[in-house]
Amino acid sequence: MPGSANLNIMLKAARKAGRSLVKDFREVENLQVSMKGAGDFVSRADLAAEQILKDELMEARPTYGWLAEESDAEAGQDPTRRWIVDPLDGTTNFLHGLPHWAVSIALEHKGQVVAGVIYDAAKDEMFFAEKGEGAWLNDSRLRVSGRTKMIESIFATGVPFGGRSDLPETLQDLARLMPTCAGVRRWGSAALDMAYVAAGRYEGFWERRLNAWDLAAGVVIVREAGGLVEPLAKGADILEDGDVICANEAIFDKFAHVIRKV
Question: Which of 97, 118, 141 is the last residue of a domain?
Answer without folding.
Answer: 141
